[in-house]
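Need tokens for this chain, all 240 residues.
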Amino acid sequence: MSRAGWAPGVWQAACLRRFCAAWLLACGAALLASGCAPMIPVVQGMLINAAPDLLASSFGDYSTRSEFKEAVPFIKARDWLGLSVLARQKLDREPNRGEWWQLAGYAHMQLGETTVARDCFERVTRLLPEEVAGWNLYAYTLRALGDRRGAMAAVDKAIQADPGSAPTFVILGELHRDAGRVQPATQAYERALEINRREPLAWYGLGMLGKRYHQPDLYERARQNLKQLNPSLAEQLEKA
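Here are the structure tokens for all 240 residues:
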């Protein structure tokens, strides 16, 4: 990315984090080779950036957007470093193109560089204020960084941009669930399901509410729907 697009040291810090991750991975491999298997799940938990379903849902269907054509192979291969390099190359040529900032933020979020991703998505909201995906992604990263007030403000903007976005209401439900607000969380998830009855993340959120707050009927309804829509997510719910 063009240097003008980054705060001083941000890109260097991101590279340092990748170096540290690689070093930890090497240490984990050495532990495994030495037979210290009990340590490995901890190391893996620190390193593996499995694609969060909510992040992907907020990003949207990239495969149908012509401007993201070059990014598709990187996303399918989960080559987040390659995707970040592609986005940087695009931004060097078009620093005010919101779509490239969106790609960059998505790559950095997958790499675990949440602060960098937040700054990218904040730029998206300024360049493309009418696009709900930018607001959803910005809210997602703010929540990940613990800025719930900022995330709620971003969700409000997302609803203004598109009141029919199911991922927006899933994020809203998550924010309420984080704060222990059961009824608003339930209403947000139910609203997401009114928009898209097959939204698995809304069912998962309802299931988590039912499990945590001892509402067996709600939990079972969510679990049964998840078993049909997303068996792996149903399994996660059962193990949570």
